[in-house]
Design goal:
With 130 residues, this protein is mainly β. The protein has one helix at 55-64, and strands at residues 5-11, 16-19, 25-38, 44-54, 70-83, 89-102, 117-118. The chain has one domain: Beta Barrel (OB fold (Dihydrolipoamide Acetyltransferase, E2P)), CATH 2.40.50.140.
C-alpha cells in the first residue's frame, strides 16, 4: 500500500513552531496549492492544505519559511480525530511532511543556482565513516 503526497505551493502565513512536553519540535503551516485545471470561468482554483513538520526540520521551516514563500512538501496524508471543547468529535486532514524543500530564493546573501534549499539536515563531514 502507498500513502504519499507531493505538493508545491505558497505558505498562507508564517509557520507556527511549538514543542511537545518531551521537547520535540513541531511546526504547522498551510500551503496554498493551485489546481492543474481551470474551472468553468477559466480560473485556477486553490486548495489550502495543512502541513505538519517534526523535529529539526520543523525548526528549519520556522526559521527559513514565511508567508508567501514557495515550498515543496513530500509526505503522507493523515486523518485524525479529537474531541473539541464542546464535546463534539472533530476530524482533521493534514499532510505530515517527510521532506520540505524551500523553493524561494534566500532573502540575503548569494542564491543557490538551483534555487533549492533542502530542509533535511546532512551530517557534518566529520561524522561520515569514510
Amino acid at each position: 500500500m502507498l500513502n504519499r503526497v507531493i505538493l508545491i505551493g505558497r505558505l498562507t502565513k508564517d509557520p507556527e513552531l511549538r514543542y511537545t512536553p518531551n521537547g520535540v519540535a513541531v511546526a504547522t503551516f498551510t500551503l496554498a496549492v493551485d489546481r492543474m485545471r481551470k474551472n468553468a470561468q477559466g480560473e485556477r482554483e486553490t486548495d489550502f492544505i495543512n502541513i505538519v513538520v517534526w523535529q529539526k526540520q520543523a525548526e528549519n521551516c520556522a526559521n527559513y519559511l514565511s508567508k508567501g514563500k514557495l515550498a515543496a512538501v513530500d509526505g503522507r496524508l493523515q486523518i485524525r480525530s479529537y474531541q473539541g471543547q464542546d464535546g463534539q468529535r472533530r476530524w482533521v486532514t493534514e499532510v505530515v511532511a517527510e521532506t520540505v524543500r524551500f523553493l524561494s530564493p534566500k532573502d540575503t546573501g548569494s542564491v543557490d543556482p538551483s534555487g533549492f534549499i533542502d530542509a533535511e539536515v546532512a551530517p557534518p563531514d566529520d561524522d561520515l565513516p569514510f
